[in-house]
């Protein structure tokens, strides 16, 4: 199967060379690597050209989905069997593309394959994100893959069957393109698979108030919006039930955490027991993730995760309120974390 990699980027001069180099090192020839610069004003285009890949420079910023659609048309990527979408802050580990090809060969009904995400180490926030990714893969992705109910194929590590791409991809500005495409694939009767051996490392937010909070509000708000647009609430379809379960559990847990002082006043022993069990699982998971990934920062920063649990709960509830009870802005823009190089 012939595969290509497409990067949509805006002002990614800091990380773009590292991303391109990793794609080539992971097995995709330069002639099969494509970049669309969506109105970049920095050196993104020039740096990409030094790597010898195919580059399309758009003068006007139209958003990630639009950039991807224009790139596919301009470069005639329909000639490929598989299309790997790559974020400009992501590096690909050896074997990624071969693992993805094998996944599609073994699953002829698969429209999308998603890989495993790891967070690049930097500080306490990236350590927390690394733990979230690890637990998410252990408990959610593996289970969803077995039940054929994966509801988000992350945009940083997803590969699409090119012959089905136009049916599932939203070629216009969207909050979370990856989740929308994943749910649409299910609606059309195609499979979405998880390939655990296809590993990427991504740059996550380093600052709490600006990048981290904005990213979570966008992700969570996009999830609520997708499920509303696709009429998943109240549906008995298997993918709808799984999505309702995941979001519903998040809503209940966030509500319990944010109002813990109230519950503690009325049910002190119950709340104390629940919090000890929950925190114990979190610290145990941090220890396991530290050992398996050889990332000692994950366990080192673990005391801060208690605070971050409350931050995440607040942002989840805020996104829910914003998605259901406030007017949504139609002005979409690129949302990038602060970039940093692998050290």
Write a short abstract of this structure:
Helix content is 53%, strand content 15%. It is built from 13 helices and eight strands. The protein starts with a strand and ends in an 18-residue tail after the last helix.
Describe the structure.
By secondary structure, the chain is α/β, with parallel strands linked by helices. Strand 1, helix 1 and strand 2 (33-38) form a beta-alpha-beta unit. The longest helix is centred in the last third of the chain and has 26 residues, at 268-293. The mean pLDDT is 90. Helices cover 53% and strands 15% of the residues. The chain starts with a strand and ends in an 18-residue tail after the last helix. The chain has helices spanning 16-25, 44-50, 64-75, 96-106, 124-147, 165-168, 177-187, 208-229, 238-258, 260-266, 268-293, 296-300, 305-325, and strands at residues 3-9, 33-38, 54-58, 82-86, 90-92, 110-119, 158-161, 191-202. The protein has 13 helices and 8 strands. It has an 8-stranded mixed beta sheet, sandwiched between helices. Helix 8 (208-229) crosses helix 13 (305-325), helix 9 (238-258) packs across helix 13 and helix 10 (260-266) crosses helix 11 (268-293).
Keywords:
53% helix; 8-stranded mixed β-sheet; 343 residues; 15% strand; 13 helices; alpha/beta; 8 strands; single chain
How far apart lie the N and C ends? Answer: 34 Å
Strand order of the largest sheet: 3-2-1-4-7-6-8-5
Label the overall shape: globular
Task: Assign a percent range to the helix content.
Answer: 40-55%
Q: From N to C, what is the helix and strand string?
A: EHEHEHEEHEHEHHEHHHHHH
Secondary structure: number of strands = 8
Structural class: alpha/beta
Mean pLDDT: 90
Rg, please? 20 Å
Major sheet details: 8 strands, mixed
Strand content: 15-25%
Low-confidence stretches: none
Provide a count of the helices.
13
């Amino acid at each position: 199967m012939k595969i290509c990699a497409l990067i949509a980027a805006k002002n990614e001069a800091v990380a773009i060379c590292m991303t391109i180099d990793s794609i080539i090192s992971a097995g995709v020839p330069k002639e099969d690597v494509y970049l669309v610069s969506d109105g970049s004003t920095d050196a993104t285009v020039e740096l990409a050209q030094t790597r010898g890949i195919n580059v399309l420079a758009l003068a006007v910023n139209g958003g990630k989905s639009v950039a991807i659609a224009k790139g596919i048309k301009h470069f005639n990527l329909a000639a490929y069997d598989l299309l790997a979408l790559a974020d400009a802050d992501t590096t690909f580990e050896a074997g990624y593309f071969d693992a993805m090809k094998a996944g599609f060969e073994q699953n002829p009904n698969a429209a999308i394959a998603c890989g495993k995400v790891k967070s690049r180490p930097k500080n306490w926030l990236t350590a927390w994100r690394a733990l979230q990714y690890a637990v998410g893969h252990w408990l959610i992705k593996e289970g969803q893959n077995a039940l054929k109910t994966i509801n988000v194929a992350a945009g940083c590590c997803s590969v699409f069957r090119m012959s089905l791409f136009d049916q599932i991809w939203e070629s216009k500005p969207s909050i979370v393109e990856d989740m929308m495409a994943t749910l649409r694939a299910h609606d059309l009767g195609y499979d979405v698979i998880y390939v655990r051996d296809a590993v990427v490392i991504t740059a996550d937010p380093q600052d709490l108030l600006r990048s981290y909070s904005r990213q979570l509000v966008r992700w969570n708000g996009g999830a609520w919006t997708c499920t509303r647009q696709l009429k998943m609430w109240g549906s008995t379809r298997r993918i709808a039930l799984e999505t309702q379960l995941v979001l519903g559990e998040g809503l209940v847990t966030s509500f319990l955490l944010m109002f813990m002082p109230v519950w503690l006043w009325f049910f002190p022993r119950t709340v104390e027991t629940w919090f000890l069990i929950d925190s114990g699982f979190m610290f145990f998971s941090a220890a396991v993730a530290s050992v398996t990934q050889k990332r000692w920062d994950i366990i080192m920063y673990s005391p801060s995760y208690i605070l971050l649990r409350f931050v995440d709960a607040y942002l989840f509830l805020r996104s829910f309120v914003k998605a259901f009870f406030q007017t949504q802005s139609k002005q979409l823009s690129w949302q990038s974390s602060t970039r940093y190089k692998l050290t």
